[in-house]
Amino acid sequence: MKLYQLMVSTIISTIAMTGMSKAQDFNDVAYSIFKDSIEMRTVVGVGNETPKLAAYLADHLKKGGFADNDITIIPHEDTAAMIIRYRGDGRSGKKPILISSHMDVVEALREDWVRDPFTLIEEGDMYFGRGTLDTKLNVAALVATFIRLKSEGFIPSRDIVLAFSGDEETAMATTKVMTKDYRDQIDAAFAIIADGGGGRIGEDGKAFSYTVSHSEKTFMSVEVTARNTGGHSSRPKKDNAIYDLSKAMLNLSKYEFPVLQSELTQAYFEKTAGLVTDTVIAEAMAEFAKDKNDKTAVATLRSYPQYIGATGTTCVATLLKGGHADNALPQSATATINCRIFPGISAEATLDQLIAVASNDALEWRIINNVEAAPESPLNEVVMGAVERVVHEEYPGLPIVPAMSLGATDGKHFRMAGIPSYALTGIFIKSSDGFSHGLNERVPQDNLPRSMRIWHSLITEWAG
Ligand SMILES: [Zn+2]
Q: To which CATH superfamily is domain 3-196+409-463 assigned?
């Protein structure tokens, strides 16, 4: 056992025995868990250390006073999920609160990185390592917060449940297992997804907004193929698989998907209008929030890649293959189209739209991924009220923005299971420091004590 691990073990035991508690002690606990978890290679495949991390976290929680039967480890193939229940006395009569994150990380190759991805490296004001941002700091802070609350004698008015998945970055099978086979254990009034959302810091170093993600667009990839009998290229015909496919793609490039707005995207544009410095965009956002049929506002927003997705479904050509020899007429040509479907719209309806736009009955269509559509989570006063109070303790007056995420998290599966989910964290970061899934992933160090404060405050707000 390394010295700091011994120290932390001693801290947890001493706290458990004497009831002594200083916020700093628990920041040390969080740091130690964070450091150890970064050093575990929780990557899909042979040698996946996610089960080891789950056992390690369970050990810390037990030392911190959690009963064996309040910790469930769920082995699944090469990985594992875990569920930790902090029992309340039920005085509020309310359903539990679920807080979810994931223990696995995206693969990282030592030779590609400047520093060892599986060692927590402290440099300047940053922590470097795979999983520092996505999302082991959250896992460590949540576990340490549970230990802290327990040592403080906190008795929640409703159960609080931590659910850590083990393959969020790949198959998301452990999340499905939790929602299907452990439904009674994860059932909750709402789920907080500690992976996404959070504070945004401008390049000037000042926080400018705090995002809570309420929904995710549905991911669908479609292959469209034009076929032809082909032949010798010295004898061209009028019909040609590449030309047929090209015409369909050209139609798609000109097509405008219907304008859509939800309670959430309306609130998002209303809030964001006050945050952007460009007056043309700000005006378009404000107009669009008032009237989604304002054509000028829609045209303006749709001219920006970062905003078009919040105005409706998008589908775009991403891959192309065709033909088999430079001296032969192509027998087939295939394009892949990737769609991000607006919540509430079905995959089938979107595919029908694509088929109509292509306007060639001879084309063959195929959805190539497993489409999983989740509803939008309704705006929730309990969630947002607490977030506003807690975030404003750190940053008075900071705008809190409900948003729709374009990526995918475990929240999708909880929403599909009927548990409204909201993604937020205690992390504040510049977008230029965001290297999730990429090289040299990092997180500013001040996020560790801040996350400890924020989770402690949020949990006591929701379950005090
Ligand atoms: Zn993540």
A: Zn peptidases (3.40.630.10)
